[in-house]
Amino acid sequence: xxxxxxxxxxxxxxxxxxxxxxxxxxxxxxxxxxxxxxxxxxxxxxxxxxxxxxxxxxxxxxxxxxxxxxxxxxxxxxxxxxxxxxxxxxxxxxxxxxxxxxxxxxxxxxxxxxxxxxxxxxxxxxxxxxxxxxxxxxxxxxxxxxxxxxxxxxxxxxxxxxxxxxxxxxxxxxxxxxxxxxxxxxxxxxxxxxxxxxxxxxxxxxxxxxxxxxxxxxxxxxxxxxxxxxxxxxxxxxxxxxxxxxxxxxxxxxxxxxxxxxxxxxxxxxxxxxxxxxxxxxxxxxxxxxxxxxxxxxxxxxxxxxxxxxxxxxxxxxxxxxxxxxxxxxxxxxxxxxxxxxxxxxxxxxxxxxxxxxxxxxxxxxxxxxx
Length: 371
Fold this sequence. Notes:
Elements: H1 4-22, H2 32-43, E1 48-51, E2 57-61, E3 71-76, E4 81-87, E5 93-98, E6 110-113, E7 116-120, H3 130-134, E8 144-145, H4 151-157, E9 164-167, E10 172-173, E11 179-182, H5 185-200, E12 210-215, H6 223-232, E13 236-240, E14 243-244, E15 265-270, H7 285-295, E16 301-305, H8 314-317, E17 326-330, E18 332-333, E19 341-344, H9 345-360
Parallel strand pairs: 3-12, 3-13, 13-17, 14-18, 15-16
Antiparallel strand pairs: 1-2, 2-12, 4-5, 4-9, 6-7, 6-9, 7-8, 10-11, 11-19, 15-17
Helix pairs in contact: 1-5, 1-9, 5-9, 7-9
């Protein structure tokens, strides 16, 4: 088990990475800033770093035994956001949704419009009727104010239809603990965990090959992970992502989500599995068995399911080619799809330790069958 000093070191590494990632903008299809950052960070720990034509970044650690199973561990770089769809003559921007941000979370939010500061407008509290002031304004009625007074001024700023729009929300630390919040923690927290895993394994030769993949286009259908899995042809896979926590007053850990912040990494046993949802996944029994063996009594973890909720990249990865045993590992996350998603760094440390130990025990992974 990691010593207290090692836990502190890992936590500090995660926090610094999250500070850096929360300043970057990269909605689905516009992940270039995050791709460049990830290429640099992966290169600190692994010599072989490749980027495909869509921006998926893969760091490969060649294994000691060429015939040993190949492992893919992924986390996505993209975040939810918006896209400029029209520019009003008076300089206001209309926009469409990219990903799952709910209407109730949008009014008066700070945004970045292709490098320019903007604000999602809202009716003035002094001028709105009582009905207007309590109503959730739908996205189709909202607009973005970039400080311009005409469409010509917007054009001079270099803003065009099709430009990406993302939340502004740099990492903030809560006093008296190890909890932080920021925008894009879905899945910048997972990406930070993946980077830290590579840091912990620097210089080690793993039993089998490990392919750490930072993916694109997850928020619009897990597309990057599907591309990467087809190319890499792994024998098994872990998807790192967050899981909505159910431990707030408006939710329930028994009726909604069993995840509680501060109680360890999450092993996600099942995701959206409706008959028409092909993006869901039921954790493969061999993956569950080996993860629990890695955790033993040393690493805190908790189980969760999101059968009627979200899914992870394991949903498409496990269907690649002949089928890939896959499961998801993550951390509890509060206030999902807002500019201020919250996690506990101790849970992220547990996720790092769990995945690192899983990799260090690859020699024992000699049965990836269903039985």
